[in-house]
Amino acid sequence: MNFLTSKFGRRRDGAKPLFLCQPFASASLVNGSFRKISALPKYVDGNEWLAANTMDFFTYINLFFGSVSDYCTPSSCAVMHAGLSNEYYWVDSQKRSVKIPAPQYIDYVMAWVQNLLTDESIFPTKADMEFSKDFVATVKMIFKQLFRVLGHIYHTHYDKILHLSSEAHLNSLFAHFVCFAREFDLIDKKEMAPMADYIAFLEELGRI
Known about the structure:
Oligomer: single chain
Helix content: 40-55%
Radius of gyration: 17 Å
Shape: globular
Strand content: 5-15%
Largest sheet: 3 strands, antiparallel
Number of helices: 6
Strand order of the largest sheet: 1-2-3
Order of helices and strands: EHHEEHHHH
């Protein structure tokens, strides 16, 4: 099992990120809150709800990264980060923290998550199979890693999202993702630090 570690901080240049500038920051497909659609519906098993949403979030985040992946190269993104001072390191099978380019890091993350999602012992699809005791812990690890991918897209490739006129879609996905993660306590507050300003803004808008 691979784990990820990080070093947090603020941008060295002090520049305001595009995703915090108007009108981009407010762009959304939904004007209301995502809390209602994040909450566990009546008569739905909690683990089933986590599994279904984890699969959906992975699919959408993977699609968004795919839309900007041509611009995420070892030369342009030599280090995986969400903001210049928020670097992420891949921990390999030898438990060594390795600094690798963002596209390689994200490829590792997506491949790892994909393998988990297709593992019947972790994400069972048959009615007679039960979820493992560490299922929620596994979901938390997935959400942590997917959050880092979103953070990288926002801090490094948001200009490309704007060129694609996809900011409302990405912002809505992010708000839903954060709202869902909070609803089920899936991501530590410290892990959300690179996007704290935008999360606070979404709170002011009443979207999360």
